[in-house]
């Protein structure tokens, strides 16, 4: 089994265990009092959604972003929630049914293998994409599926750039939940995400949040280039 396959299996098992109480415990992540609600709202606003838009929520989990997305796109819009874990999607489905949303589709798929439908207005991922080893591939595939001007927004955690190595190691030991955390820090996936956003999107932006412990990355699909008209000589 490859390292990517092992990471995938680990994520599935981890979130299957967390799914039942995730909506409660997630608000304690990464530490109690962390401004997760405020950051999620900021991420949704960065999508600049309009009524009737189509948006994909990558690694949607239990659908925590759905209420904010629904407020922005209305019943004529469309949400496609994608997640790797069946148990998380079961919770998301319960949320959809409880709210009577008829414009939400749920897809169980690995983000790296998901086939984004074309002509999307927006793609969102919150607190998840740094866990995907192929995060650059996901960004590239999503960018190709966006309509001109469509928005890609990623909210996720990171290690502050100026954190001394000894302090990062101490923090890792304090919050360690699995052997993969040290690999996550060594991999520095937020740097990969930043580079991929700059490469594949127009007007990319990068905002450090909460003293550099999180980031908000955004960009738009480039407008199609207009070919210059060449005069025809008769």
Explain what you see.
α4 (66-73) links the parallel β1 and β2. The chain has helices at residues 3-18, 22-25, 36-46, 66-73, 86-99, 135-145, 165-175, 180-187, 189-200; strands at 54-58, 78-83, 104-108, 120-126, 146-157, 202-209, 214-220. The radius of gyration is 19 Å and the shape is globular. The chain is built from nine helices and seven strands; from the N terminus they run αααβαβαββαβαααββ. The model is unreliable at 173-179 (pLDDT under 50). It has 234 residues and is an alpha/beta fold. α6 (135-145) runs parallel beside α9 (189-200). Strands 3-2-1-4-5-7-6 form a seven-stranded mixed beta sheet, with helices on both faces. The protein has one domain: Vaccinia Virus protein VP39 (Rossmann fold), CATH 3.40.50.150.
Number of strands: 7
**Overall number of structural domains:** 1
The CATH architecture category equals 3-Layer(aba) Sandwich
Q: What structural class do helix, strand and pairing data support?
A: alpha/beta
Q: Share of helix among residues?
A: 40-55%
Largest sheet: 7 strands, mixed
CATH class, named Alpha Beta
* Amount of beta strand: 15-25%
Which radius of gyration do the C-alpha atoms yield? Answer: 19 Å
Compressed to H and E, one letter per element, the order equals HHHEHEHEEHEHHHEE
**Which descriptor suits the 3D outline?**
globular
Cross-sheet strand order for the largest sheet: 3-2-1-4-5-7-6
Number of helices: 9
Low-confidence stretches: 173-179
- The CATH topology name reads Rossmann fold
């Amino acid at each position: 089994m490859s390292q990517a396959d092992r990471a995938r299996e680990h994520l599935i098992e981890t979130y299957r265990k967390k799914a039942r109480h995730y909506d409660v415990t997630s608000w304690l992540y990464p530490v109690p009092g962390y401004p997760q609600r405020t950051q999620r709202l900021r991420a949704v606003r960065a999508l600049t959604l309009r009524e009737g838009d189509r948006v994909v929520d990558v690694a949607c989990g239990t659908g925590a972003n759905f209420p904010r997305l629904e407020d922005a796109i209305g019943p004529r819009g469309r949400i496609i929630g994608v997640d790797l874990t069946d148990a998380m999607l079961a919770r998301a489905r319960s949320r959809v049914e409880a709210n009577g949303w008829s414009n939400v589709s749920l897809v169980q798929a690995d983000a790296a293998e998901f086939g984004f439908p074309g002509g999307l207005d927006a793609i969102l991922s919150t607190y998840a994409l740094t866990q995907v080893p192929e995060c650059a591939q996901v960004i590239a595939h999503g960018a190709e599926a966006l309509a001109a001007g469509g928005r890609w927004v990623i909210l996720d955690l990171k290690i502050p750039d100026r954190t001394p190595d000894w302090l990062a190691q101490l923090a890792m030991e304090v919050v360690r939940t699995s052997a993969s955390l040290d690999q996550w820090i060594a991999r520095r996936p937020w740097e990969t995400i930043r580079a991929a956003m700059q490469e594949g999107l127009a007007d990319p932006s990068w905002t450090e949040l909460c003293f550099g412990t999180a980031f908000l990355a955004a960009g738009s699909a480039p407008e199609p280039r207009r070919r210059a008209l060449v005069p025809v000589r008769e």
